[in-house]
Amino acid sequence: MACCVAVIGKDNSPLYIRVSNPETELYLHFTVHSSLDVVEERVNSLAKSSVGDIRELYLGLLYSSETHRVYGYATNTKVKFIIVLDVSRVQNVNENELRSMFRRIHSAYADAICNPFYIPGDQIDSTKFEAIISEILL
């Protein structure tokens, strides 16, 4: 379903980026990084407004182009998850399905960083995390 999944640290450094098609890797890296500005705006606006629920982690559609749609999710610790969908492969997007994918990534991320040998801020290198991302990228 997804063509790219990224985990971005609280200082906007990439902790994990994986694409399904290596030919589009550079373009998708650019797309993920360009969507970070929108993530920061949404997170800051939720924190400032009393109307928005700060506990709402799903940010929704961040960026849309002719070929891709970018969706975001931010944790309370300011770690960001980005999913890029290919418009040619996915016509109708189910918001509940996207929320479920983000929850799965968040859970797998929490399991990966709870490893006592993981150093915070390093690249994520976990076979279980990799398996979850592989399922999402199918």
UniProtKB/TrEMBL annotation:
It comes from the Eukaryota. Gene3D superfamilies: 3.30.450.70. The keyword Transport applies. One of its GO terms (cellular component) is perinuclear region of cytoplasm. SUPFAM superfamilies: SNARE-like. CDD domains: TRAPPC2L. It is found in: Cytoplasm, Perinuclear region. Keywords: ER-Golgi transport, Transport. GO terms for biological process: endoplasmic reticulum to Golgi vesicle-mediated transport. InterPro entries: Longin-like_dom_sf, Sedlin, TRAPPC2L. PANTHER family: TRAFFICKING PROTEIN PARTICLE COMPLEX SUBUNIT 2. Belongs to the TRAPP small subunits family. Sedlin subfamily. This is Trafficking protein particle complex subunit 2-like protein. It comes from Darwinula stevensoni.
